[in-house]
Amino acid sequence: MAANFTLDSNPDSYFSLDDILASQEKVPCTFNTQVSNMGYMDQSTTDTNIVSGTKLELPFWLAKSLDRGSRSIINIDTPKNYKEVYRQIFTADPNVVDLHKLGPYFYLFGGKLISLHLPDNDDIASVLLKTFQGRFRRIMDGSQNTLNVDLTSQVSLLDEQERLLFSAGQQGLHDFQKWETRESEKLSTSTMVANHRKRKRFVLSSKSS
Amino acid sequence: MDPSEVEFLAERELVKVIPNFTHDKIYLISGDVGPFSAGLPLPVPLWLAVNLKQRQKCRFVAPDWMDIDVLKEKKQEEADSRFFTPMPSPHYMEITQLLLQWGTDDIPKADEIRTLVKDIWDLRIAKLRSSIDVFVKSGESHAKLNYLTLMEINTVRLFLTKALNHMHQLKSVTSRDTTNSNSQAF
């Protein structure tokens, strides 16, 4: 049931779990002003206040709300994975990159970053799209070609959204395969009924013993 | 859409059978069938053909295209062409599947036909996949493919729609951003 929920959920939705998880990725920030009594957020000092100039990694949702307004409390820097060096790697060969390691929500978080109006916004946006276009063929072939093969090594390189895509492709393949082997016309017990019977038998056997 | 639903739609296609009984016209919601006279071939919907065959009331007549030579030619044509070629029937895969499942004895060289149809299918799916790839790489928002059959579309439907949704998200993020920065510049 839970899998279905994430499959259908729209990442723009307020209740989307993926969206919530993506918005807690960390963004490097520099404080412009002193913030009183928040020193505990910086593990490296024992001060009670955050002094101006402190560099901290804040979750995206916090950074975004602090960044608002003309006299901003913080300055946001581009996260490492979206910087020029990484962008060059993505452009060189998007297929070899382990997007899951670089942030399980690479695309979703990248999309959120763009709303922060960083100086290299345009480059980030184009890299996101290009990376997906470059990786698309591999995801498609991987998901549509292999049947009953261990795919863990292939899937582990994929970003969360790509994984959903991958499982959609697999489902299409499996459905067709089932039809082709005439599996789909056979009547089978629903899993619920099968489990129910087992439970009944279990109860009966435990009573008699 | 499940492949079995596609098969259901395919079952409305007409195929020829030779009944071994005589019966008046039967009137069905989808149209009239018959009259049946023993030994005379007549077209009936696929579902009825399968049903009659299961009760051993008829023999199948293979459709014109279900022939080794025709299929070999079709396969060659499909392999030579860069684009999709028109198929002899919009439901060629389903019809082959059903006719060969129940009527192996009525259709000559059933095994070879099965292999040929599967070969054509594989060729077309490979072609479909490379066209999808070109389409995604080009970043266009629409494309037109001729002569695809329903079953072929159905195998990539879930995957393709999701992929395009994802692309749309990535693109709309970009465009939303440029409109925002424009409005700020004003």
Automatic annotation (TrEMBL), chain A:
Q: Which GO terms describe its biological process?
A: mitotic DNA replication initiation
Answer whether the UniProt record assigns the keyword Ribosomal protein to this protein: no
Annotated DNA replication complex GINS protein PSF3 N-terminal domain ranges read 15-66
Give the Gene3D superfamilies listed for this entry: 1.20.58.2050
**Keyword set includes Nucleus:** yes
Q: Which residues form the GINS subunit domain?
A: 84-180
Q: Name one GO cellular component term.
A: GINS complex
Q: List the subcellular locations.
A: Nucleus
Broad class of where this protein is predominantly found: nucleus
Show the CDD domains listed in the entry: GINS_A_psf3 (cd11713), GINS_B_Psf3 (cd21693)
InterPro entries named among the record's database cross-references: GINS_A, GINS_bundle-like_dom_sf, GINS_Psf3, GINS_Psf3_sf, PSF3_N
Fill in the subunit field for this protein: Component of the GINS complex.
The record's comment on protein family reads:
Belongs to the GINS3/PSF3 family.
Protein function: Required for correct functioning of the GINS complex, a complex that plays an essential role in the initiation of DNA replication, and progression of DNA replication forks. GINS complex is a core component of CDC45-MCM-GINS (CMG) helicase, the molecular machine that unwinds template DNA during replication, and around which the replisome is built. The GINS complex plays an essential role in the initiation of DNA replication.
Q: Write the protein's name.
A: DNA replication complex GINS protein PSF3
From TrEMBL, chain B:
What does the UniProt entry say about where the protein is found? Nucleus
| Assigned keywords, A-Z | DNA replication, Nucleus
CDD domains noted in UniProt: GINS_A_psf2, GINS_B_Psf2
Assembly and interactions?
A: Component of the GINS complex.
The entry's protein name is DNA replication complex GINS protein PSF2
- Annotated DNA replication complex GINS protein PSF2 N-terminal domain ranges read 2-61
Q: Organism's domain of life?
A: Eukaryota
Might you name a Gene Ontology BP term for this protein?
A: DNA replication
Query: Gene3D superfamilies from the entry?
Result: 1.20.58.1020, 3.40.5.50
Output a single Gene Ontology CC term carried by this record: CMG complex
- Give the record's family classification: Belongs to the GINS2/PSF2 family.
Q: Name one Pfam family in it.
A: Sld5
The answer, when asked if Zinc is one of the entry's keywords, is no
Q: Where is the signal peptide?
A: none
